[in-house]
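Usage example:
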Amino acid sequence: MEKAKKRQFGIVATLISILIFFGAITIMAIKANTTHQGTDTLERVKNAHIMTWGVKADTKLFGLMDTNDGQIKGFDVDIAKAVTKQIASDLNITIEPIFVQVTSSTRIQLLKNGNIDAFAATATATPERKKVADFSKPYFSAGQSILVPTKENIKSVKDLNKADKTILGVVGANSIINIKKFAPKAKILALNDYAQAMTALKAGQGDAITSDNGILYGMSMENKGYVVAGEPFTNEPYSIAFDKDQVPITKATNKALDEIIKNGSYNKLIKKWFSKVPGMNWRSLER
Amino acid sequence: MIDILLKYFPQLLNGFWVTIESSIIALFGSLILGTIFAVMQVSRNKITRIISETYVEIFRNIPLLVITLFFFAFVAPVAKKIGLPIDGFTAGTIGLTLYTSAFIAEVIRSGINSISSSQMEGAVSNGLSWWQAMRYIVLPQAFKISIPNLGNQFVNLVKNSSVLAFVAGLDLMYNANSIAQNTFDSLNTYFIVAIFYLIITMPISYYMKHLEQRFKGGAH
Amino acid sequence: MITIAGLFTFDNFRYLFIGLMYTLSVSMISTIFSFIIGSIFGIIVYEKIPYFSKFVSISVDIIRNLPLLLIIFFVYFALPKIGIHFSIFWSSVVAFTFFEATMISEIVRSGINAVDIGQFEGARANGMNNIQTMIFVVLPQAYKKMIPPLVSQFISLVKDTSLATGIVLPELMYRGQIIYGQNSNYMVPVFVILAIIYFLVNFGLSRLSKIIERKMA
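Running the assembly step on the lines above writes:
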């Protein structure tokens, strides 16, 4: 009797757990599809008086953690602050910007998960990304370039278009997809962050690092013997990203960007971050 | 799911082989290293014992990722200077080998300890040197006893080889991340990759369970 | 040498210390949860309930045989696709909990196995039912035997939290990476410092478990 009972219990328990498992997944999946774009980011920001920004924390000039005070500092961060302030003053309320660290491989996911309201994280509005996120007007004119050892005779990306060349990049960055068009013969290797890519370059794992010129200038500042070679070969301006179909906040941000360019605070930020970078034509970045 | 599998099958298969390759190289490397350190630990020489214990404690208590990235950051640039450039795969496999060897040393040491010391004494009194007795009498038995544990270490090795993804080692996990980035379909990508991993790990781990039971049955 | 002098500042070490706190708290919370879930799984597998035990043990084996890194990425990147959202912190806790629970269920099962069968019978003769016997007689003894493997499981969890750097959990490893983001020349010394911190914590833990083991014996 005892045994038969146990057997019965076993069968029932197995069926119930399988049912709960698959049932829960199906219900959640359906729910996720129906209530996906429920909340309006601008409304949420207005009500909470807080705007959560995703920014890089490991990228010189754009977003770098200062362990001194635990603050992330860089051009992206300052733009985010200026935009938040401008949106707040346009709406006549106060909004506090909060910063969350993201990487190239996590930023879109964090946006879709609702952990952040927006990101200003050295991101270009590519057609693929536009399918899953909304983008503001460009706030920085970047272009893809290459960082190479001074002693190697690499003058431009054309010199890398050989089967024995390896180009290094960072996971999730658009530049490693783009580079295939400019150097289709070269091998491409994606590292986790720029410091690792730099180490890989020093280790001879690759012949060049490709990324946006601003990031590369930041790296050449601290590594003697490495220079940004040639002019940028793409035009990939950075934009602020929001979740898909967030028209009100995108419009508000575009307006805010126009205003900070008009009142000169944009040029002040360009000067603050890029005027001391050797080899960079920061005047051309002004608007 | 099928479309991702079809479109990226060659890439996944490449990653799959790299994972297997790295795991097998690391298995042999760590077996050799692990055995050396195990023998050093049971030897009567105090210095070799201390060296071996230090080695095992260091590599057992530091995350594999730290070991691997250290190798990548430190050894790779040095190696380049002497004309031996090593890539992410090599750095990752070396990290895996060192890390696993500490665990294998423990497994083999307990295998050696479970062989009764009278066998050793008997062999030595029959005119074999300590080293000969170890080599021909004790170690073969210790290996045999340790097979289930060693198998489990191999399963761990395959799972741990995913750290190669952090140093662009082109393994299964690295390719999984790159496909997930390209398709924005992380759910299905990681699901497929999970199956690839299970193809390697599940049969080994079940076979080891079976062996373990048989060994236990034999002891009674 | 001058190039790395800027690394050894009080701020950098304080920054790393907070990372260590993250590492330890994620490990601690995950261990507590996985201990509970692992015990339940372990008991179910031990009880050999027809079909159900098999079902649980196969599920446990599937998770156990996957790389932890894959589970972390799955929880953080893939689960939101079916509407399950966790923050970075809780994603890590969920991933570690499930992975560790499968390990702990194995430990619990063999721990119960090691308890003398006579005790089961004795307890039953004293009028306890199955569940009471399990909770009041068998488990306390099994747990005692399980302390060393549980501590070594905790140590491997402390090490494994470094994988959560892949999803930007601000633990020790990630903070190390942020610090060498200031200057890529810091990379090697940062890894040495990280290795020392991890080593001291884990070595201390393993010594502690040996002392406990000796006291209990």
